[in-house]
Amino acid sequence: MTVNSLSLCYHNKVILAPMVRVGTLPMRLLALDYGADIVYCEELIDLKMLQCKRVVNDVLSTVDFVAPDDRVVFRTCEREQTRVIFQMGTSDPERALAVARLVENDVAGIDVNMGCPKEYSTKGGMGAALLSDPDKIEKILSTLVKGTHRPVTCKIRILPSLEETLSLVKRIERTGIAAIAVHGRKREERPQHPVNCETIKAIAEALSIPVIANGGSHDHIQKYLDIEDFRQATAASSVMVARAAMWNPSVFLKEGLRPLEEVMQKYISYAVQYDNHYTNTKYCLCQMLREQLESPQGRLLHAAQSSREICEAFGLGAFYEETTRELDARQAKLLARTPEEAEDPAQDTSGVIKMAVKFDRRAYPPQITPKMCLLEWCRREKLAQPVYETVQRPLDRLFCSVVTVAEQKYQSTSWDKSKKLAEQAAAIVCLRSQGLPEGRLDEESPSLHKRKREAPDQEPRAQELELIGELCKKPLVALGRGEESLLEGR
């Protein structure tokens, strides 16, 4: 993907502010739907991004930046390509430039966080900690302006005095950045403190580059018309909205706020379509519900432990099923078209016993897994320990495992999101094909039953711990990477 940086303008814009855990792809797309001109991603730390690999996700039609542990750190798509700003946390010019070059072909601009006062941002000299080091600010911004093809901006807080603030922003302007966002509070101030519109106005009058006013949600902005009032009060070129947009992203809609139920359902739809992790989806929905968290729907949301359960809480169960079927079908079609990318561990299918099964942690007691049951059975039968061979296919980064027991191979035909889940699924195939118990809550392991007869006064929890102790006497066979934990799949 290539972006024409000249197309991005910071004049007369309404902007979704960078917010940790909130500014992920579903929220950004929703804000664009409701009228935001520019959207910022959440602050992402330079060291974390430099560990990521850029992956084109053909199933979701996204570009993913994936960490070594397979977690998606940043996900974007073509629809927001010309309007998404990548905000980084950094304290080092060279690292900042390396990150900018990593992402610049997939975003519209690069921003450096110099205003967040929270510890996760200030540690290591990032965020608001930079405000006390103007030399470092100048070096970081100058390096980015010279080294990247995208417009560079930064977001700051005001300093203790107007004179100090104006001195800093003028120095920042000389680095050649395209715009500056100003949160009208000091580093130590919080949302309950009034936003200083006069200082933002003085900055806007002193600079020739666009100034983006931020910090008005508590005192000024509840609906779209308030955004323009805040702009006029600060004389800023544009307005950046944070918490008011987090509470209801339709604040960007000129026609007025939409009902929260409608907004939340639309947000959930994007979360499912783009495979947003359910914990992040749940967090954002809780921010929207606010005082309604104790309502029946709020309690259902609080109890939800998966994207499916979140959808069911909001009457979107059928949508979830339909969307996941479509994504699965798209994935299957892509794999059928490019079989060489699948790296299927069972390309030679002779002698491999297969079933379409998945491991669901909720169906098992806390300390019991199929892998443990299979290991105990092998020891009881005096067989060699199970050997797992697990691969990951690059197309969608899912895992599949083959387990070998007594020279027979077993494999689940379902691919999983982690190596541990794939190995548990392979163990289930082996146990079921042998007619052996797999440790589920709805069945009783013969070994546990035997212990009940021998020690009838023991509590079930103690029996499980006794079983764990026996299983932990020897390590599992790992995938050529050392020993495996016996408590896998938790």
Description:
This protein is an alpha/beta fold and 490 residues long. It has helices at residues 25-33, 46-50, 93-103, 119-122, 134-147, 162-173, 197-206, 224-234, 243-247, 260-273, 278-289, 296-303, 307-313, 317-337, 370-380, 419-433, 446-454, 460-471; strands spanning 14-16, 38-40, 44-45, 53-57, 62-66, 72-77, 84-89, 109-114, 152-158, 179-186, 211-214, 238-241, 352-355, 387-392, 399-405, 408-412. The strands form three sheets. Strands 1-2-7-8-9-10-11-12 form an eight-stranded parallel β-barrel, surrounded by six helices. It has a four-stranded mixed β-sheet with strand order 13-16-15-14. Helix 1 (25-33) crosses helix 10 and helix 17 crosses helix 18 (460-471). The longest helix is centred in the last third of the chain and has 21 residues, at 317-337. Residues 1-6, 338-349 and 445-490 have low confidence and may be disordered.
